[in-house]
Structures are given as structure tokens and as C-alpha cells.
Amino acid sequence: xxxxxxxxxxxxxxxxxxxxxxxxxxxSYPEQPPGTDPTNTDARAxxxxxxxxxxxxxxxxxxxxxxEHHGIDSTDPTxxxxxxxxxxxxxxxxxxxxxxxxxxxxxxxxxxDINSFVHRYPDTALAAARDADARRRAEGDRAPLLxxxxxxxxxxxxxxxxxxxxxxxxxxxDNIAVGDCTAWARLxxxxxPLLGHVQTHQMASPPQPATCAASNPRRDWSRxxxxxxxxxxxxxxxxxxxxxxxxxxxxx
Length: 252
What we know:
Elements: H1 3-26, H2 82-91, H3 96-114, E1 117-120, H4 122-139, E2 151-154, H5 169-172, H6 182-189, E3 194-198, H7 209-212, H8 233-239, E4 246-247
Parallel strand pairs: 2-3, 2-4
Antiparallel strand pairs: 1-3
């Protein structure tokens, strides 16, 4: 670079710096009382320009339309979906105790083949089902929609007094939950009987065949397809009609 080009470059760079300093000096932050932080971020003064508050979004509500219970075949309640079961329970055409017993019998019959459940809780499930039936009789249509519908939880959801191994029975085989997780506490408050805990991959992480083969549920892919990215016990139990809803990180 010759002397003339170098001088021109320095002049242009100096002009840009001068423009930047002028722009910075022309901008001023709004005056704030000493010691205040309008951003609530523990930032040091001078504080950024305060942004307009965002509008508070209203919570979304969804209206569910239950099917007419007259057109639902309740001969085998394990073959029905959640909305169909809710319609039958609300109409008094099916009891939670009968539904829960049918699902427990189904799990007892099939689980030796599919290896889906880690633990089943028949006694407490039937007791919760009877309580749900009594609640529906007392509250009628005011009872929660899910009241009386049994479910299974992945083995990463804590239930007070129950084992919680998170797919690691060799390490957490003696672990007992000291309280209910938030999800189960809310579902229990709605009156859902708990059938049991089903298998989960280690710490609910994507499966590694070399480390999870011993506890993986068995699946008959010729008859059933999986709607989840990492199909496991939740999908298998639902497909084999051992539990209508199953709560888990991969359940859909």
C-alpha cells in the first residue's frame, strides 16, 4: 500500500470513529432515580431504554365435545379411548371400578409377553376407582372430566411411597419417592386411579440398545405401529390396551 492509499484509509477510519462518537453522545438514557433498576435485571447504570410492557396473554381454553354414550359399545371397555370412557362414566353407563378391573386383568394377561409394567398397584387402583365412582355420584357433571379414568405413569414420575427407578433399577432399585411429583398430584386430584409404573429408558433419555435391552418392552411391529419418536412401554401398553392414557416424556 503506497503512502497516498494509507493516508486515505486513515482519514476514512477517523471519519467513521467521529460519526460513531457523535451518535453515542446524541443518545441519552431516561433519567432514573438513584439506585433504581427499571429493567429488574441487576444491570448497572446507565440502564437501557425501558421497553413497552408486553400484553399479558390470556390462557387458552379448549372445549371438548364428548360423544353420545348411547352409540358406544362398552362390551370391552379396554378397547375404548379416553373421551369415550369419559362419556360413559359421566352418563353412569360404566363404573370406574369395572373399568379399572378390566385394565388390570388385561395387564395381568398380557404383560408377561410385552414387559411393559415395572410395578402394578391393583389394590390402591381399585380403591381409588371406588372413590372416583362415589365422587361422580356426588358431583355429577361437575366432577373432573378425567375422574375415574385409570392411567399408568412412566417410571420417572414420583408417587409418594412407591419405587422410583427412572430406568436404572441396578442403581435406584431401593429408591422410594418421598412425595408426589406435580403432574401426578394434579392427576390424582382429578380422581384418576393409578394402575402402575411402566418402563422408561434410562433417565428418560433416548434409548441405547446395548444398555436398555434387558428392560425394553417387547413389541409386535407386525400388528402395532408406534406414534412416538422413541416407542417404549407407554406406546406398547396403549397399543395392547393395558392402559388408556399414559403420562411420559415420549407419550403422545
